[in-house]
UniProtKB/TrEMBL annotation, chains A, B:
Domain (HTH tetR-type): residue spans on this chain: 25-85
Gene3D superfamilies noted in UniProt: Homeodomain-like, Tetracycline Repressor, domain 2
Species of provenance: Streptomyces daghestanicus
InterPro entries, per database record: DNA-bd_HTH_TetR-type_CS (IPR023772), Homeodomain-like_sf (IPR009057), HTH-type_TetR-like_transc_reg (IPR050109), HTH_TetR (IPR001647), MftR_C (IPR041347)
Keywords: DNA-binding, Transcription, Transcription regulation
One Pfam family named in its UniProt record: TetR_N
Region (Disordered): 1-22
Keyword DNA-binding set for record: yes
Protein name, as recorded: TetR family transcriptional regulator
DNA sequence: ACCCAAAGTGGAACTAAGTACCAAGTTGGG
DNA sequence: CCCAACTTGGTACTTAGTTCCACTTTGGGT
């Protein structure tokens, strides 16, 4: 695996947006478009870098100069939407609660109609189908999530159904995320802090009743 | 990438735990131990399948019969802990709130001292270092998370510090998880439902004020 | 208009993950 | 005791990703 930190794509502009850099960005965009067309036609896994390079009119070698990884083509696009969400979040009134502000920032994604080509909605479809994030796919099929979510669904005490399942999935994934955040913070301290306390903190900031049974 | 659904490891026991299956499980465990020793010594990326196979006394080919992927060695171990958490969750009193029950189920991980070899705590350390889940690493360094979390931290209105950062990370990751759950549910409906409503539902079940600014 | 250092390009050769296939060896259990 | 089923290792292949080198292009200053 390539180290994602030393991406060969944009080595931080030393001064301004020089002509060469703009050309480079344009190339990246064009190659990305070509790649996504192929992905949509034959799927992510079934599309080789060679095909993309050929279709875009460059060599395999050069492709890897623009994208360090095949995945990076997809991830780059995802990152764009992330930037939009981040911008939307920053634009929200400062006195809103973080959770509500986040919900409104996500409108950038949720309110985008699936009509326009290349819209976030379409991309979401492609991403889920493409199974790029093999890891997340695994987590949801074989990992903790699938083992825990059913029990959570049962505990929600609602009639079984797609909406209840979704709520259980959200709850489970959020909890796991909190645990992840706690362990990350714990590792950052070199293991000196109390992982248990950190987990309380992380989960508590989402639902104050995290400390009490009911 | 191998399809994680057709894992060559345990093709569903047709009748009982036959002798051959138990032998197989024992082999898997032993190979896994050898692999983790190598991972700990030289890191995940720098350890080749060939090395693991040689150290375990089997051929490369046979290794792939036990583990479809090098990652699966690690993921298998993670899955064991997941099963423990799931069991712990099922054992909690039925009248506890889901969120609290989840918190207590995580005690299996958080309360395990980092002393014993192969303890969850040690494994957590290894996993974060190994960067197996290249995706999650990316998400946290280049992805949405890193773009959104700082803003959330600012909005928490607390003095900057490691704990605030962790709370912001937890909040951000949880919100993204909710959005993921919503889009998954949305895709499951073929795009007929309102993604926006689903997002409200998913985020709302964690913090009731998700629907209101304050 | 000219020039050159820097950047871009493509090809060849390499490592490593993962897959497909085959021929031989082992063994469980009737 | 035996054979069908399972296991094993070897070879050959595809693809992602890296490294190196030689060649071409070009931006931008003189």
């Amino acid at each position: 695996m390539a180290d994602p930190t030393k991406t060969p794509s944009t080595p931080a502009p030393p001064k301004r947006a020089s002509l060469r850099e703009r050309t480079r960005a344009a190339m990246r965009a064009e190659v990305s478009d070509v790649a996504f067309r192929l992905f949509a036609e034959q799927g992510f896994e079934n599309t080789t870098v060679e095909q993309i390079a050929a279709a875009a009119g460059l060599s395999r070698t050069t492709f890897f100069r623009y994208f360090g990884t095949k995945e990076e083509v997809v991830l780059g696009r995802v990152g764009e939407y992330g930037r939009q969400v981040a911008d939307a979040l920053a634009a929200r009134p400062a006195d809103e609660s973080p959770w509500y502000a986040l919900r409104r920032a996500f409108d950038v994604i949720t309110e985008a109609g699936p009509g326009r080509p290349g819209s976030p909605a379409d991309m979401v479809r492609l991403l889920s189908q493409a199974c790029v994030l093999m890891t997340r796919h695994w987590e949801k099929t074989q990992g903790w999530h699938s083992m825990i979510a059913p029990e959570v669904a049962r505990r929600l005490g609602e009639s079984a159904g797609p909406v209840t399942d979704m709520r259980a999935n959200a709850l489970t994934a959020a909890a796991i995320s909190c645990l992840d955040a706690a362990t990350d913070a714990w590792i950052a301290t070199g293991g000196t802090a109390s992982l248990s306390d950190l987990a309380d903190q992380a989960m508590g900031c989402l639902h104050e009743t995290g400390h009490t049974p009911e």
